[in-house]
Here is the input.
Amino acid sequence: MKNNSEYVLVANQASSDLGQKIAAELGLPFTHMVHKEFADGEVYHAFPEDIAGKILIIVASTHNQDSHQELMDLIQGARYLNAATVNVVIPYLGYSTMERAKRGSFEIPKGVTRTRQIFRARPDFVAFVDLHSEAVLHAHGGEISTKHIWTGELVVEHLQKMDLGDFVLVSPDYGFSKQVAKLASLLNCPHTAADKDRYDTDKTIIGQISSVVSGKTAVICDDMIRTGGSIIQTAERCLDAGAAETAVLATHLVMAGDAHQRFLDSSITKVIGSDTYPGRKSDDLLEVYSVAPLLARILRGYLKIDQEFIN
Here is the structure.
């Protein structure tokens, strides 16, 4: 049986809040990295204690360039300092929608290439949360243990506590409809999907919605919200089909640009999502739940962290 002094849990700067929540769930101390920035822009990192022979847990979303590079530094630094094992949880994987290149485009599929960079830094275990595509899981040669964590059961627990009345789940496209159907089966509610056609990088047209939404609250589900354009269009089509009101459910609340204001100006009454994307907190629009209990449970099982650590 290991004791809690054998585990060290850290996070990149962006995921520090979530890292602390996970540490509390596990009954482990959260270790703050020593972080300094020099006048020339170079960044200094140091572990505040000896991690040689320790089981290291790193929590790190890679939503921007700095966060991705910081994760790389933490993994490679841990290897340099002889951590016993390096275990990574990536709540939000940046570039996850770029898992393949269109034929003849010569684009770089950064969802794969950046995940491959992480794997080549030689972590022992990497867990991802609600990936846009599982293709990135296979961007290594078989030497890394990986896990794709689905938040569905946690979402069900959260939705059951909310007063949504008679509701139906709606997928904004047929590509995500399988996940929505799986969630609907757990909630014992109906589901449907919209017709979506993408005609530019961030531009889509949403077609008709089934009349199954008539008189009900339409909860539009997706893995992430970036600009919100297609989701807002889907909400409008739901109202056209007779929905009483509309809400949104998404794991990753990217909310790029003026997305927050666009939602406030729309007919959507509530946006429900998790804290996987750094900085997202509940407000007059967002209802944010934490994935910390779920991630802690996965880590506890995989790393055999004793339940007695938890106060």
Summary: The chain has a mean pLDDT of 91. Residues 137 and 146 are 7 Å apart (CA to CA). Residues 152-289 form a domain with the Rossmann fold fold (CATH 3.40.50.2020). The first helix runs from residue 16 to 26.
